[in-house]
Specification:
Helices cover about 40% and strands about 20% of the residues. A five-stranded parallel β-sheet has the order 2-1-3-4-5, with helices on both faces. The chain is α/β, with parallel strands linked by helices. It has one domain: Rossmann fold (3-Layer(aba) Sandwich). Helix 2 runs parallel beside helix 3.
Length: about 130
C-alpha cells in the first residue's frame, strides 16, 4: 500500500484528496504547514509521495522541496506539486528545486490527480 502525505492548508480540499486517495488504497497522512512536512517525513518509516501545495503556512512549498532534496531525506520520495500558482516561473522553480510533477489545481479534478499520482509512482490500478 503506497503512502501519500497530503500537504494542504484548506481543510475542505484536504478532506477531498484524503478520501480520494484512501478509496484508491493509499495510506494517507496529512499536514497543513511546511514545517510539519519535514517532521512527518523524518518520523515516518516510509512516504512514497508528497502532494504539496506551494502556498502553505510557516514554510512555503518551495522551501519544503529545497529541504527535502538537500540529501537528508529519502531521495526516492516523489514530490508532486498541486497549486494554483500557474506562472511558468513558479513551475520552473519547483522543478529546479526537485519536484517530480506539477499540477495546477484548477485544471485537474481530484480523481485526475489520483490517476496521475498513481502513474508517477508506478502504482498499478485495476
Amino acid at each position: 500500500m503506497p503512502t501519500i502525505l497530503i500537504v494542504e492548508d484548506e481543510p475542505m480540499i484536504s478532506d477531498i484528496y484524503q478520501k480520494k486517495f484512501r478509496d484508491q488504497g493509499f495510506e494517507v497522512l496529512s499536514a497543513t504547514a511546511g514545517d510539519q512536512v519535514l517532521e512527518m517525513v523524518r518520523k515516518q518509516k516510509k512516504v512514497d509521495v508528497i502532494l504539496l501545495d506551494l502556498l502553505i503556512p510557516k514554510m512555503d512549498g518551495f522551501e519544503v522541496i529545497r529541504n527535502l532534496r538537500n540529501g537528508r531525506y529519502d531521495p526516492k520520495i516523489k514530490i508532486v506539486v498541486s497549486s494554483n500558482l500557474n506562472q511558468l516561473k513558479d513551475m520552473d522553480k519547483a522543478f529546479a528545486l526537485g519536484a517530480d510533477s506539477f499540477f495546477i489545481k484548477a485544471h485537474f479534478t481530484p480523481s485526475q490527480v489520483v490517476r496521475e499520482v498513481n502513474k508517477i509512482i508506478g502504482n498499478i490500478v485495476i
